[in-house]
Amino acid sequence: MIRVLVAEDQSAVRAGLVLILGSAPDIKVVGEAADGEQAVALARELRPDLVLMDVQMPRLDGVSATRQVVAERLADVLVLTTFDLDEYVFGALRAGASGFLLKNTEARELLEAVRTLARGEGLIAPAVTRRLIAEFAAKPAREPGADPAVLDRLTRREREVLACLGEGLSNAGIAERLDMAEATVKTHVSRLLGKLELRSRVQAAVLAQELGI
């Protein structure tokens, strides 16, 4: 059972999300939050597997809430956004969100996105993700850029996997590209995240773009 906390300030939208998620036999909504502060508090209390997080909320925005949830390792975060690739989305990526979802996503795709993250796949809708990551990497950073020396921590194979993440490939896609078992890909992804001190595949993908690999 995948335990989900829904954080969305618009009650009608939140109710719709809860209804959709509740229709799946393998997903359980364990809590609802109407703002970012409540989202963080409930994540601490309920320890869900996933927080479905809107980016624009009162009291504490979704980006700041995501940063706290990720920093405390309370849950993975799936960010809800419009297709406008604005600073909210970029900030969510830097904050460690595991993936993102468009607000106009069909119910079936919402459920599959939740299941995808639960399987450890951090990149939702690869074609959209590649555009998002590319535009994010092209924007001037407000902090020092990534140091290429961090790649020295990785093996040759791990660098190849990191490059594939930068293209928005799923585990299955990486396995096909590099001719290896999907389980082996998962191991490489887990190891490189640990070596690079990253929380999510999305952060790894952004790093790959910033380093140009």
From TrEMBL:
Q: Which InterPro entries match?
A: CheY-like_superfamily, NreC/VraR/RcsB-like_REC, Sig_transdc_resp-reg_C-effctor, Sig_transdc_resp-reg_receiver, Tscrpt_reg_LuxR_C, WalR-like
Key words of the record: DNA-binding, Phosphoprotein, Transcription, Transcription regulation
The source's superkingdom equals Bacteria
* Signal peptide positions (record): none
Q: Where is the HTH luxR-type domain?
A: 147-212
What residues does the Response regulatory domain cover?
Answer: 3-118
Q: Which Gene3D superfamilies match?
A: 3.40.50.2300
> What SUPFAM superfamilies does the entry give?
C-terminal effector domain of the bipartite response regulators (SSF46894), CheY-like (SSF52172)
Q: Write down which residues bear the modification named 4-aspartylphosphate.
A: D54
User: What CDD domains does the record tag this protein with?
Assistant: LuxR_C_like, REC_NarL-like
What's the name of the protein?
A: Response regulator
What organism is listed for this UniProt entry?
Streptomyces massasporeus
